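haha ok so turns out i had the wrong file open the whole time. this is the CORRECT one, sorry everyone. sequence first:
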Amino acid sequence: MAQTVFLIETLKQALKSHGKTYRDVAQALNLSEASVKRLFSGNNMSLERLDETCQMMGMEISDLVKMMTARVTKTKELTEKQEREIVDDPQLLLVAVCVLNKFTFTEILEHYLISETELIRKLAHLDRLHIIELLPKNRIKLLISSNFSWRENGPIQQFFQAKVGQEFFASRFSKPDEKLLSISGLLSDASNEIFQAPSARVLRTST
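then structure:
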């Protein structure tokens, strides 16, 4: 049943992207518009009608299944080329970090100097990379897996190590909400694992 729901939802998205309405589907299937609405709302469409609806858009059912798979499968890691696309555009990288931290469209506009038009453009780019789905009214739906991470030693990780790390440790840590503590010592493998565990838990719960 879940697969059927996903398939019908994907069909709705395909109709929207092709500029088609329930009325267009009704004409193609020789049904009333009310009947078509019931088919969609009840997630109850025969294979024959599904095929006819796809043909109306110049698609095959296999194309629809591929679209559904792409929407359901969450992104675990980007390719090196995709990460390079992001890191080469500082504004796109900023927006990517914001959405990964679950900023809303309005919150990004409030916190950063970026126009609404440009923000929509950057979000559309992240949609194409399958990091998010940009929904109506500029709502943002994350499409990343719970264990999503930037590529090890990839373009974005290298950027943060080279730029952010330097800027972080260049700070004097003099503000009330800042503190830098440094101690020396050796940890066993077991102790090191215990030391890292809280950070790993934070990463899991924040995704």
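The CA atoms of residues 183 and 195 lie 14 Å apart.
again sry for the mixup
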